Amino acid sequence: MTETGKRVTRHRFYKAEQEAGFVEAQKIETAQTQAPSYKLAYRDTDFLLRDELRPLRFQLELMKTDMLLDEAGVGSTLVVYGSARIPSPETAEALIAAAETPEKRAVAERLAAKAHYYDEARKLGRMASECGVVENGMRQFVVCSGGGPSIMEAANRGAADAGADTIGLNIVLPHEQAPNTFVTPGLSFQFHYFALRKMHFLLRARAVAVFPGGFGTLDEFLELLTLVQTGKMKPVPILLFGRDFWNRIIDFEAMADEGVINRDDLKLFHWVETAEEAWGHVVRFYELDCG
């Protein structure tokens, strides 16, 4: 203590938000104070969006999500990838009915035939959340999706069914889109960069479920396989739903036959059809006490 009785502290400078408040309280308006150059750098959006500041924006997208997940006590995640187009069982018939041509109807029927995967994603989200694993005060296997509709919504919905928090990692797209309503508001994130979004999918992932999907799902799945195959990421249970679908999309056996991957690489993932099968792999892999 000093002679004045005030504690000596290392915080000898005003915090950034305090100084920003000082600026807002100023009533002086001159040509100089109104110039863009006079804005505090961290409050100057036009400056932050300059091409030269792209590395800084990378860092901000990395740090914001990481810090907020830490503060929320999220230790690890169960990540769910999958289509934004597969309907829920409740909306499957309406999707078919809305088809305007025979070709569109055929596509709608194929999508509707996959509606059961919505139910499986929802069940998986609920099972992981009900397990309630906590390690060192941090919650484990918190359900994390891309935050969008369809399979992503189903996974978040399953966690919400169990009364658990759930994460959504949205991406800015040219067409209008918004987080599904089952994502915990304080754990709903939006990204500009796909690379940073994909990094956050896997930074905390202790298991990944991959449902039928399009280019985005395929991109995420193959990057995950590459990271594990090359030793950049430790092995985790990779749960691939829909053998018939994926074998039409990728001929894994042919890749091994051609020698472009090792046959043991086919063991990097597990074929599953139900949430029970998928969660069973996770339970056995980590020797969890919940089924």
What's the helix and strand layout?
Blueprint: H1 16-25, H2 31-34, H3 45-48, H4 54-71, E1 77-81, H5 92-97, H6 102-112, H7 116-131, E2 134-135, E3 138-139, E4 142-145, H8 151-161, E5 167-171, E6 188-191, H9 194-203, E7 205-210, H10 215-229, E8 238-241, H11 243-249, H12 252-257, E9 270-272, H13 275-286
Helix pairs in contact: 4-9, 7-8, 7-13
Describe the model.
Helix 10 links the parallel strand 7 (205-210) and strand 8. The protein is globular and about 70 Å long. Helices cover 45% and strands 12% of the residues. Strands 6-5-4-1-7-8-9 form a 7-stranded parallel β-sheet, with helices on both faces. It has helices spanning 16-25, 31-34, 45-48, 54-71, 92-97, 102-112, 116-131, 151-161, 194-203, 215-229, 243-249, 252-257, 275-286; strands spanning 77-81, 134-135, 138-139, 142-145, 167-171, 188-191, 205-210, 238-241, 270-272. It contains 13 helices and 9 strands. It has a single domain (73-286), classed as Rossmann fold (3-Layer(aba) Sandwich). With 291 residues, it is an alpha/beta fold.
What class do helices, strands and sheet pairing give? alpha/beta
Calculate the mean pLDDT score and round it. 93
CATH topology description: Rossmann fold
> How would you classify the quaternary structure?
single chain
Cα-based radius of gyration, to the nearest Å: 24 Å
Q: What is the rounded distance between the termini?
A: 56 Å
